[in-house]
Amino acid sequence: MDVEKREELKQMLKRLHEAKPEELEGVKSQAEKYFKETDPAELAMAEQELIQEGVGRQEMKRLCDVHLEVMKKQLGAQAKSLQMLPASHPISILKDEHKIIKRNLKKLKRTFDKLKRAGSFEKAGKDINILKELSHFFLDTEKHHDREEEGIFPRLIAHGVTEPPEIFKEDHVEFKAKKRVLNELIMSAEKKGFEEFVREAGPIVDFLAKNLDDHIYKEDNILYPMSYQTLDKDEWKDVRKKFDAIGYCCFAPADLKKKDRTK
Ligand SMILES: [Fe+2]
Ligand SMILES: [Fe+2]
Q1: How far does residue 91's CA lie from ligand 1's centre (Å)?
Q2: Residues 6 or more apart from 184 whose CB is under 8 A from it?
Q3: 156 and 177: one domain?
Q4: Tens of pLDDT, residues 67-120
C-alpha cells in the first residue's frame, strides 16, 4: 500500500479516536465512506503503525470496536469470500469451531441464569452438571487458541503483521485465566454454597459471554480475512500440518475422519 494512503488512513483512525461524543456520529459516517476502499490488511498495518507511534494497545482495542462498527457492511463482504474455502482449510476449521463455541457460550449464559433464578442447587436440578460439562468444553477449546497462536500468528509476524497477533494473544491469555477460575468455581460449587457461587461466577460468565463473542466476531471479520490475504497457498498447507499436530477440540475435520476410516 502506498505511504500516502496509509497516512490518510491513520489520520482517519486518529479522528475516530479523538472525536468527542457529540462529533462521533459525523466522523463515523465520513469514515464509513472512506473505509469502503480499504481492505482489512491495510487497516491492520495502519493500526500497527499507530501503536508503534505511541497509541496504547488498550486504546487501540477500543478504537478497533469503533472501526469495526463503521466497517461492518464492508467487512461482511470480505468475510464472505472465505465461505468459498474448502472445509479442510485451516480458516474453515477455525470458523466452524467458532460456531460451536458461540453456541456453547449462549448455553453457558442461559444455564447459569436459569440456575441463578432457581435459587438453590436442589431446585436447579441438572443445571450444575450442564455447567460442569460446558466448563470442560471451554477448557478444551484452548487447543483452538493454540492453533491460532502457533499455526497462524508466527506466519503473520514473518510477513510484518505484528500487532494484530499481539492483540488477539492478549485476549487469549485473559480468556484462559477466566476459564480456569470459572472451572474451579463450578467444580467446587456445591461445597462453596449457592449464594457465594452465583456471586463469584456471575461476572465471569458475563465477561466470557460478551468478550469471547466479540473476539470471535473480530477474528471472523478481520483477522481471518487479513490472514487469508497475507499468507500464501503453500503456507496454508504447513498451517494445516501444525493444526493436525496440535489437535482439535470441538470436532475432527471431515478429511481427517475420512482418512481414519481408510486406515
Ligand atoms: Fe482467538
Ligand atoms: Fe478463534
Answers
A1: 12
A2: none
A3: yes
A4: 667 666 667 777 888 999 999 999 999 999 999 999 999 999 999 999 999 999
Q: From ligand 1's centre to the CA of 262, what distance in Å?
A: 33
How many domains does the chain divide into? 2
Ligand 1 center to residue 148 CA distance, Å? 6
Ligand 1 centre to CA of 126 (Å) is 31
221 compared with 147, residue with greater pLDDT: 147
Domain closes at, from 82, 104, 130: 82
pLDDT tens, position by position, 31-43: 877 777 777 677 7
132-144 b/e (C-beta count within 10 Å ≥ 16 → b): eebbebbeebbbb
Q: Which three cell numbers stand for residue 133?
A: 460439562
Domain shared by 131 and 194, yes or no: yes
Domain shared by 34 and 121, yes or no? no
Q: Is the dihedral of CA 178, 183, 184, 185 positive or negative?
A: positive
What does pLDDT average to over the chain? 88
Please identify, among 35, 62, 82, the residue that sits at the C-terminal boundary of a domain. 82
